[in-house]
Amino acid sequence: MAAITVTEQPQDGPLIERRSIFSTLLGNRKFVWGAAVFLAIWLTAIIGSQFVEPAMRRTGAYPPKLSPSFDSPALWVGTTTLGQSVAVQWTQAVPNSMLVGLIAAAIGTSVGAIIGLLGGYYGGRVDAVLRVIVDIFLSIPSLLFLILIASLLKGVSVVEMALVIGAFAWAWPARAVRSQTLSLKERPFVRVAKLSGMGNLEIILRELLPHLLAWLGANFLNAFIAAILAESALSIIGLGPAREMTLGMMIYWALNFGAMIQNMWWWWITPVITLIVLFLSLFLVHLGLDEVGNPRLRTEQGG
Question: Are the C-beta atoms of 42 and 98 separated by less than 8 Å?
Fold first, then answer.
């Protein structure tokens, strides 16, 4: 009788899969262009801020109402009515606005994922209680409530603003994750995990959560730009972090000092264009992630 030779299969399947996804992302033009533009804005602000000296931030550091000039990098986008460099303000505003987006998106996505996973997986009373809480938050007009809270918080900081926005950013993700978890927990691989002796927490973390990572990544991007736009909206009506510079506060100060009336277009248009470009860049990243994670979209693009 001939001997049967068993060839050991390599165990690097997940690694190969991760490499395949990464290479697919790099091959997606939308993702690459969106990520490149976003990183270019962030790096320009971060690197530029390293060349800003304290004296350059002071009021009256430059002649007031100067239009864009190439005499100095600080004057590339002009000055304000108080003799402040718009470029210097921009290098402070971009990181602060991105910090608001990062904190709020992290809170909204993580809290939403936890609540959605717990409610969808356990069901019963746990799901009923969590669903009521989610419905209550969804019924609250978030923008009006944000305006109320921001008006009550005197001298709100960038971090406090991010926490307030993040507190209302988790309900929709929670509902979406719950519905997906209800579907996933009926799949055969979950039954196999239960039969193999895996605990509930282990099943949630090792079996269910990996299937939601692509969606959670896309939601994080949406929440990131939504938080930046929410902060900008609150800042424009005078409820932003007045002691710190953000893109929204740049627009607020420009409008407050009559930049439009005085035809100082460079003051207000700089943060407005930045917000538009940030939105478009993250939108492209989102489309790229959708195409990579959705085989149907990937096939259509390839065809």
Answer: yes
CATH number belonging to the domain at 69-297, selected among 1.10.260.40, 3.20.170.40, 1.10.1200.120, 1.10.3720.10: 1.10.3720.10
Note the pLDDT tens digit of each residue in 213-266. Answer: 888 888 899 899 999 999 999 899 888 888 889 999 999 999 999 898 999 999
Distance, in Å, from the CA atom of 30 to the CA atom of 19, rounded to the nearest integer, reads 19
Token couple for 57: 């931030």
Given the structure tokens 């864009």, which residue do they identify?
A: 68
* Lookup: tokens for 133: 């809480």
Residue matched to tokens 């478009």: 280
